[in-house]
Amino acid sequence: MNQDHSAQIGSDPSLLLVDDDEVFVQRLSRAMERRGFVPRIAVSVAAARRALAEYPPAYAVVDLRLEDGSGLDIVDLLRSQRQDARIVVLTGYGAIATAVAAVKMGAVDYLPKPADADEVMTALVEQKSVLPPPPDNPMTADRVRWEHIQRVFEQCDRNVSETARRLHMHRRTLQRILAKRGPR
Predict the structure, then answer these.
(1) GO molecular function, one example (predicted)?
(2) Distance between terminal CA atoms of the chain?
(3) Using one digit for the tens of pLDDT, what is the confidence trace for 4-40?
């Protein structure tokens, strides 16, 4: 699918890619460049802040978890600098709560890793006005439970003690659940 997408991209093809996985972000950068974007790479929250200070891009792909902070901080900062920016959040730790937070902060989409360049391209340029089709593989009951815990955790500002109290759960039990990857 290496075709010119400049009509979809518009007059400003600037793209900021923020991910601390340098191999992944370099590969994504080359793929997005072939699709018509002019990408810049940042491998940390600090580097992304510097890039945004130079020029807020029209598009951004931001990893949720970075070594030095949260990608949501970058979403918030870019949205405050450029209202029309189209932002996609990527993460290997997908949770409904963080997806909701990302969309509320201004992201247009939320993709789980590993997302390929075509998925990222579609998320950046497609104008969605209808609900997507139902999933082929809906979440398991264990996953729904995990997602609920993650949502309450985010709503409690990531405070483990407060989350445990609200969920009527022992704090150490909650810490063990939070330390594990979510079930599939």
Answers:
(1) transcription cis-regulatory region binding
(2) 30
(3) 556 678 888 999 999 988 898 999 999 999 998 999 9
